[in-house]
Give the backbone structure.
Amino acid sequence: MPPAEAATALVFVVYTMIFAIFRGDPRISVAAGLGILAAAAITLASHHESLAENIAIYAYYFLASGVILLLIQHIRGDKDDDSKRDQGGKGK
């Protein structure tokens, strides 16, 4: 793995760890990944294949980070914000 790719992977590992420690919302990573993937498709449509491939790699990292964070959230037993709001607003 070239040093630039290793540095990028390390940045996403640290990003995922920080989000896991501070209980960040995993949907942010998933939404960012989907948005970046859409940008990669647009870039590919404009015939910039090399740039589109690099953008798609970043989308993969965000999506993988989101899935890992969702798995951590599930293992912890954390509930999403919507169910917390529903439970807190009823019967009190």
Observations:
- The chain has a mean pLDDT of 89.
- The helical segments are 3-21, 26-45, 49-76, 81-89.
- Residues 49-76 form the longest helix (28 residues).
